[in-house]
Amino acid sequence: MSVEVRIPTVFRRFTNQEAVASLEPGTIADLVAQLERRYPGIGDQLLAEDRQLHRFINVYLNDEDIRYLNKLETQVSEGDTVSLLPSVAGG
Amino acid sequence: MEGSGLADVVRMSRALADEMVEHCLQERPNEACGILAASNGDITKVFRMTNATRSPVRYALDPQEQFAAYKKLEESGWDLGGVFHSHTRTEAYPSPTDVRLASEDVPYVIVSLASDPPSIRAFRILKESLIDADGRIEEATVVVEEGEGDGPPDG
Description:
A: about 90 residues; alpha+beta; 5-stranded mixed beta sheet; globular; B: alpha/beta
């Protein structure tokens, strides 16, 4: 249990208000699958029907946006922190 | 996003309200945006951000700036007290786009530059799920506290 995933407020109703989840290392896709197993329903909030990240979710590995890394295939190692952020937009 | 029980009052000093409005005025003709930090229910800091869309009718917080600001919130022990943006030509009320794209369970503060002085209102946009396009709009109260002592004395 060595990867820290930070959960934004908007998803904490799926996590019993937990702000941080400790997960096993793997790819971002693996982490999403672990989250869904632990907190059923959260996966649909993160992934669209095409199984890619919803466009209104930004995911950071430590300080880097995974869109500029390997997206869902980005490898997350022990000690890393993954942050999920809802994009904030409107008109 | 229903019934989180978060504050439905946005309470801020005149100095912070003026800072937020100033950012909105400076960004015209485009919409301006940012977030508000809160501590014990009071707004403590205005984070001015880049509107990544650079548009007069749309806004999106620059993702990297948003990430840095959220880290700062955490380091400082602050809460996300609100999200703000401007409407440059329309009233301070959530547009259909604001509702469709709403994602945070905090008050959305809207600064309308259609009036002089600009008007400030705030709304919760309540959704069953982040991915819902529809939401229920509930107005929150904005309290701008006049008075002295908004910052350290000069010198």
